[in-house]
Structure formats: structure tokens, C-alpha cells
Amino acid sequence: MKKNESIIFIAVVLIVISIPGVFTNTQPNQTSQMDNRMLQEFPGSESEEFQKDVELYLSDRVGFRENLITLYQILCDKVFSKLVYPLYEYGKDGHVMMNYDLTTYQHADVDQDYVENLGEYLKSLEDFCGNMGSEFLFFLCPNKESIYSEYFPDGYLVKDQPNRSDRIVEALTEKKVPFIFPRELFIELKHEELLYNRKYDAAHWNDTGCFYGNREIINYFNKSFPTMGELRKDEFQINEVVQKYLKNSYFRIDEKVPDYTLKKADSIEEPDTFSQIDLTAPQLHHQYYRNTENQELPRILIFGDSYFEYVSKFYVNHSSELLLLHSDNMKNAEYYISLFQPDIVIAEFVERVLQVPNAIDNERIAKRFPAGVHEEKIEQGIQIESYNTKGEEFISIYGSIDDCDQEMMLKAVVNEKSYYAKCDGNTFCFTFQKEDLSESNGIDFYKCF
Q1: Rounded to whole angstroms, how far apart are CA atoms 49 and 62?
Q2: Cα torsion angle, 204, 209, 215, 217, sign
Q3: Do residues 433 and 322 share a domain?
Q4: Which of 5, 25, 84, 335 is 20 to 30 A from 150 via CA?
Q5: How far is CA 345 from the centre of its chain?
Q6: pLDDT-derived band at 155, boundaries 50, 70, 90
Q7: What is the DSSP letter of 288?
Q8: What is the dihedral of CA 237, 242, 248, 253, to 10 degrees?
Q9: Domain membership flag for residue 33
């Protein structure tokens, strides 16, 4: 009898553990609502790490994956009071905190050369903007733990020295680069309003924090562009919405979070604008808005990370044109600035992004230079290989150039206007306003170094 019971038990166990495998999702182009991303595809024969890619494929697509992850999270929460979630952990008093950027939180030693190179990079970008007739501002977003450090869990040693952000601020102040770092303002405001949610999306500020941060930016530019006006709360319908789950999860939280909805928008989104342009990071957020009521307002170009993905509602009534690009496009900042010729250029990064060396300009940060210091007209060695004329507003040309390196930028002068290329090795892309090409007798190319 006991033998039969053992056989039955083993059979049941084998059936249970085989069920997820039987229900593996093998359909192509599948997405995960929990992770908000595409699931791993089965690797082809060209895969360099075939076994690793197969393991990723199976772990992504095994049957009931999301249910099993959620069950495990619930068990760990109820039994061990532990939050099992990538990058998050429980803090104090019910707060969820990120454990990603411990370098900043612990005031750990940082690469001072990187800090200096970052300062030089931003200074050279400000110089470039000045040469192009644009005003520049760098905005550094605080991590949640920089504002709500009292809720960060115990057990992390904090050194008695300036942290990475403090050193960056010192470098920018010394080099006279315009910047805003609202850490002290937020520490004051947190006693009146919640700027980062207790649990939901602890990696970012909430709409209230986003409002105050962008109000600082608009107030700054009001000195030069007084028609922008002030950013006011009465522009928005402010409500609370309930977020049932932790972001990208089915872990239940039922948290009320602020939601700011613009009462009246003077701008319309024109998604076709960026579809005409060769973007550096087309898979990441990019938005274009045109003000239909007031074209006298400044034209604004923003490079921002995920903190700025949804800030359009704070700018559309304070700009004639608003161009939002993910910060990964800053690798070719000159390309976009010379094409759109904005009145204002804003570069935004959250503190934790700057823990990665060369985060802003992966390969060129240490080798930047004020554009136009040395220029040499190209008489030969440049080849035009193809054109893109599908858009109504822009035309792009693609080609290659001999003897190109990452310390050099390419410039084209058309109709007395300067355009800078998006380069990848010795290949390049120039994008021009169509009206400039139609009024031009030709294109002159230059090396800038």
C-alpha cells in the first residue's frame, strides 16, 4: 500500500512540475504586461550565446510565469516581510525604496575624473547651444532616497563626505554651467506634500514632485522668456487615482496617488514629425507638440530619461513647439539642436543614471570640445549613398567619409545654416529642413575638431 502511495505521490509531483512546461508560450512577438516589455524570442543559429539565450527564452515564456512570480512575492511578504522585486526593497513606515544607487546614498568614493569630464561635457554643450542661439539648462533629478532618507532601511554605512551629486554640483558651479538640482527645495516641500509615492513606482517622482520640479525649470526660463508665464496648479484637475499593484507587477498595494490632468491644452501632438527623422534611439520615448494658439512662445527641446517621459502636460501651454527625446539621443545632441534650432535646450538626468561612467555621452564625454573651434572644409573623401525624401518637412542624406574618428564632428552648411551629422564610425546621416535645400545652390561639408 505504501509503495502505491509513493508512486501516486511521485506521479502527482511530476505532473505538477511539468504543467508550466506544457503551457510554455511559443508564439512570436509576445509581450508581458507585468514587465512591460517584449518576451525573449527563441534564438536563431547566429546567436553567439545560444544556450544562455535558450535559458532566457524558457524563463520568460514558461507557463503561468506571472502567476508563479506573484505567488512567490506574496509568500515572501507574508512569511518573511520581505519584498521580492528587482531593484526594490521595503523601507520604513510602509515605504518602498530602490536599492539601485547605493553609491550616492552611501556617499561612497566616486571617480573624480568622471565628474570633471561630465562638467566639461555639459559646459561644451552649453557653448554649442550658445553658438546655435539656444539657452541651455541641466536639470538633475533627486533619487527618492535623497529626499526621504529617513525611510531608507537601516544597515547601510554612509560616509561623512560629499556624495557624487554634491561633487557634480561643485564642478558645474565652478564651470558656470546653468543647472537646477532641487534637492533642498524638495526636502522642504516634503513636509507639506508627498513628492514620491510611498509604494507605487518608487523609482520615480509622482505627479506632485514632477509639477514642482518642472515649475522650477519654467521659472528659470521666465527671466529670458517672460511670455512663458508661470506654471500653476490651477492649470490642472488634480485627483487621486488608486494603483492596485506595484508597477510592472501583480503585487497588490491599493495605493492612492496624485494625478494631474491638464484642463485645457493649447497644443496638439504631431507624431509624424519624428517619423521623418533618423533618431538615435527610436525605440524610446519621443514626442512632438505644436501650440495652435500662441507661436510667440519659445521652442523647447528636452532630452530626458524616464523621469521626463510624461512631462509634456507641464510644457505644452508654455511653448510654441515642444520636442521631447529620450536622453539616449544626447549622443548626437548637435544633430537635433541644429535641425530644430530651439530657443531652449534642457538636459535632464536622475541621480542614479550618473553612477554609470559615460552615461550621458557613452564614447565622447571625455573628448568633447566647443563646436567650431577648428573647422576644415571637406574637398574630397565624402560619399553620398542614399536619400530619404518621404517626409513633408525634412530630407535626410546618408553616406560615409574617409578618416573619421570619434573626436570629430561633421557639419554641413546649407542656405547659410549649419547642420550637424549623426555619426556612427565613418558613416553619417544629415537631416535638413526641406525649405533650406530648395533655396540652396549646394551643400558644403566641414570637419570640426
Answers
A1: 20
A2: negative
A3: no
A4: 84
A5: 15
A6: confident
A7: E
A8: 150
A9: yes
In 3-state terms, the chain is what percent helix, strand and coil (to 5)? 35, 25, 40
Nearest to 204 by CA among 362, 322, 87: 87
Task: Based on the fold, state whether residues 380 and 361 are members of the same structural domain.
Answer: no
C-alpha cell at 14: 511530476
Domain boundary among 367, 395, 416: 367
Whether 207 and 157 share a structural domain = yes
Q: Give the 3-state secondary structure of residue 145.
A: helix
Task: Quick: pLDDT tens for 241-268.
Answer: 999 988 777 778 899 999 999 999 989 9
Same domain? For 7 and 124 the reply is no
Q: What is the mean pLDDT of residues 233-246?
A: 94
Q: Which helix (H) or strand (E) holds 337?
A: helix 333-340
HSE-up of 404 (CA within 13 Å, CB side)? 22
Q: And the C-alpha cell for 387?
A: 536619400
Query: Distance between CA atoms of 396 and 445, rounded to whole angstroms?
Result: 15
Q: Are 359 and 388 part of one and the same domain?
A: no
- The alpha carbon of 390 is separated from its chain's Cα centroid by a whole number of angstroms, namely 28
- Is 120 inside any structural domain? yes
Phi, psi of 59 (to 5 degrees): -70, -30
Which of 61-75, 82-96, 412-426 reaches the highest mean pLDDT? 412-426
Are the C-beta atoms of residues 236 and 186 closer than 8 Å to each other? no
Which residue range forms the structural domain that includes residue 385? 375-448
Out of 319, 334, 367, pick the residue that ends a domain. 367
The DSSP output letter for 224 is T
C-alpha 3, offset from chain centre: 61
Q: Count of domains in the chain?
A: 3
**Beta carbons within 10 angstroms of residue 35's beta carbon:** 15
Same domain, 391 and 423: yes
For residue 310, give every residue at least 6 positions away whose Cβ sits within 8 Å of its Cβ, in sequence order, or none.
210
Q: Is the Cβ–Cβ distance between 375 and 446 less than 8 Å?
A: yes
Q: In what order do the strands lie in the sheet with 394-401?
A: 382-388, 394-401, 427-433, 422-424
Q: Which three cell numbers stand for residue 287?
A: 514626442
Which CATH number do you get for residue 433? 2.40.30.20
CA distances (Å), 208 to each of 193, 261, 325, in order?
Answer: 8, 12, 22
> 341: phi > 0 → left, psi -120 to 50 → alpha, else beta; which?
left
Query: What kind and span of H or E run contains 117?
Result: helix 112-131
Q: Are 360 and 379 in a shared domain?
A: no
Q: What value does the CA radius of gyration of the chain take, rounded to a whole number of Å?
A: 26
**Residue of 336, 326, 314, 330 whose CA lies nearest to 286:** 326
77, part of any domain? no
